Sequence to fold (292 residues):
Amino acid sequence: MTAERARAITPASHGRARMQHDSAAVPLVFLHRSGMVGAAALPSGAVSGLRVLVVDDERLARDDLSWLLRQCDDVDEVTTAAGGQDALRVMTDREFDAVFLDIRMPGLDGVELVRVLRNFRRPPAVAFVTAYDDYAVDAFDLDVCDYLKKPVEQDRLEETLRRIRTRSPAPGDQPTEPGDGHAPLRRLSARRGNESFEVERDDIVVVEASGDYVRIHTGDDSALVRESISSLTSAWSGCGFIRVHRSYLVRVAAIDRMTVVDGRRSIEVAGVEYPVSRRYTRLLLDRMNPRP
Fold:
C-alpha cells in the first residue's frame, strides 16, 4: 500500500499529522518508526518490537491511543479495530503481542473479548483502557496486564509496555531459563512529597488502591507508587501476596490475626485492621490454612 492510500489526519489533542490505519475503514497497514508505511503482512522474524492492536468503538479514542503508542520505542506496529467483533476478525489472520482494549463497547465488550482471547493458542497480553473504575475487579479476575484510565498519558503508557515486556518475551526472544518469562517487579519507584526513592518488594506488607496510584505500606511508613493494584496482584501472586479486598493486597506472612465480627471478616497487619471481602475469603483461608 502506498502512503497516498493511507489517510492522514491531525487529531486536535496532539496537533500533529499521522497515518491512520483503522481496520474498519481502510486496509490494514503498519507504521514503522522510520515513518514508512507498508503492507500488513511481514516476513517471519521481521518485527523486533511489539505488535499492538487497539480496540475501541470511539474513533477519537482509537486515534489518540494509536498516536501515543507510535511514539514508544518498544512498538513497531499498531493496528486498530472498532469493536470486539472487528478485533476477532483482524486476529484470525495475524498475531499480536498486546491488545489495548476498551471495556464498554456495543456487541462483544472488552470483558467478553478477553475471555475469548484466553482460548487462543498464544493469547496476547491485554491492557484495559477505560474511563471507568467499575471494572478493576474484572481486570484482576481476568489477569490483564494493566488497567489504564482515559485520557492516557505517555509515561503511564510506557509503564504498561514495560509490564507487557516483563510478562511476555519480545518476538524472537527466549526466556533465559524455563519459566522465567514472567519476572515479578522486585523494586518499585515510590514518591513521598517531592522525594523519589525505591522500595523493595520484600519490605512491603500492604498495597492499598489510591485512585490511579497505590499506596504501599512497609509497616511504619507508606508512600505512593504509580502502579495499579490489579497489575501488582498479578505480578506478586506467586511472591507471598494475596488480594483480600478490591482495595487491598497484603503479604500473607505479615497477617497477625483474623477476626469475624457480625459476619464481617477482617485481618490485622502491623497493628492496622483491613477488611476482607466475601469474594476473597475462601482464597485467603486456603492460603492461611493450607491443606496437608
